[in-house]
Specification:
mainly alpha; Helicase, Ruva Protein, domain 3; 2 domains; 4 helices; elongated; NAC-like_UBA
Length: about 120
């Protein structure tokens, strides 16, 4: 590599010089930014691939009961936060009707009448 008249090897366009002698070299800075972007893209692609594999595994796992759509089960799990089993049971009970199953699962459950299990006070 040819050296300049000052004896230094040319390194590229200097963006900024600092009083202590430090400087940012344009090409090195661009290379660093591009490497960070490559890593980010690789990480995102990996996450997408993992999500796709999970979706394939869900499709291959035990299929829901007849009349129960897998999309409905996934929707109920996402919206209500119930387990897949609870979502399937609700859909089975309502013969695959998503709206009725949603209503069924959001209704309050029966509670004990009191802390002591409903026992009444003796007089």
């Amino acid at each position: 590599m040819a050296s300049s008249s000052t004896g230094r090897i040319p390194q590229g366009e200097v963006i900024m010089d600092f009083a202590d002698g430090g400087s940012y070299i344009k090409q090195k800075l661009e290379d660093a930014v591009l490497e960070i972007e490559r890593r980010k893209i690789t990480k995102e692609e990996g996450a997408k691939a993992q999500k796709a594999m999970q979706a394939l595994e869900v499709g291959k796992s035990a299929s829901p009961a007849p009349g129960v759509k897998a999309e409905d089960v996934d929707y109920m799990v996402a919206q209500l936060g119930v387990s897949k089993e609870e979502a399937e049971e609700g859909l089975k009970a309502e013969k695959g009707d998503l709206v009725k199953a949603l209503i069924r699962l959001v209704q309050p459950r029966k509670r004990a009448r009191s802390v002591d299990g409903g026992a009444e006070l003796a007089k």
